[in-house]
Design goal:
Number of domains: 2
CATH topology of the largest domain: Glutathione S-transferase Yfyf (Class Pi), Chain A, domain 2
CATH class of the largest domain: Mainly Alpha
Structural class: alpha+beta
Number of strands: 4
Order of helices and strands: EHEHEEHHHHHHHH
Strand order of the largest sheet: 2-1-3-4
Shape: globular
Radius of gyration: 18 Å
Length: 239
């Protein structure tokens, strides 16, 4: 990956993460869009490193970006930090217009605070009935995101317009997990017939070079998800 200068800290930044985490994928996509070199450190969340615990003592989770020895935590915060620390590098994640920038932040927060908790209920569903109920509850939020895409993109390929922006990264880095859950639950979260804008956007996002370079293999994600479900079901059976 090409080195790009202009960051706040000295030296190459380090990213603490786990290979399948969509929140870590967010940061890796952003760094790729910027064309930045960085050191990636794979964390074992079952045995967290002292570096992780020291760098993120509040939440003790990934991702953490360490730039010049200083840690930045929480994926959306990191995305904005990357955009501000390397303003001249690669793609700008946030638009220059203050209103458009506020709008992007609003929808990124909607993805995090409203949509993803609904998806998590589908992700954690153990029965067909639970999946059907969770899917039904998630659909109105997908409808909202379909409208948001139309308004934000203004007829262009991405939420960010001609290029991938903050909202694209915030939502798109979860696409591989949407597909894994759809495979198991028999759902289609971004149904092309119901949500043509989002469905076409998802294909475009996954075709972006910076995305293809870091998104994990769909089969491996599906295998991991099935492993999670087996553990959850075993735990539920033992109570």
């Amino acid at each position: 990956m090409a080195e790009a200068g202009g960051g706040v800290g000295a030296g190459v930044p380090r990213l603490l993460g786990t290979w399948s985490s969509p929140w870590v994928i967010r940061v890796r996509v952003a760094l790729g869009l910027k064309g930045l070199s960085y050191e990636y450190v794979e964390e074992d969340l079952a045995s967290k490193s002292e570096l992780l615990l020291r760098s993120n003592p509040v939440h003790k989770k990934v991702p953490v970006l360490i730039d010049g020895g200083r840690p930045v935590c929480e994926s959306l915060v990191i995305l904005e930090y990357v955009d501000e620390a390397w303003p001249a590098a690669g793609t700008r994640l946030l638009p220059s217009d203050p209103y458009d920038r506020a709008t992007a932040r609003f929808w990124a927060a909607y993805v995090n605070d409203t949509f993803l908790p609904l998806f998590r209920a589908l992700f954690r569903s153990m029965t067909a009935e639970q999946s059907a109920e969770a899917f039904k509850n998630a659909v109105p939020a997908v409808e909202t995101l379909e409208r948001a895409f139309g308004e934000c993109s203004r007829g262009k390929p991405f939420f960010g317009g001609d290029a991938v922006g903050l909202v694209d990264v915030a939502l798109g880095s979860h696409l591989v997990w949407f597909r894994a859950v759809d495979e198991v639950a028999g759902t289609t979260l971004l149904d092309g017939a119901k949500f043509p804008g989002l469905a076409a956007w998802a294909e475009r996002f996954m075709a972006v070079d910076a995305v293809k370079e870091v998104v994990p293999d769909a089969g491996k994600v599906l295998e991991q998800y099935k492993g999670f479900r087996a553990k959850w079901m075993a735990a539920a059976g033992s109570t």
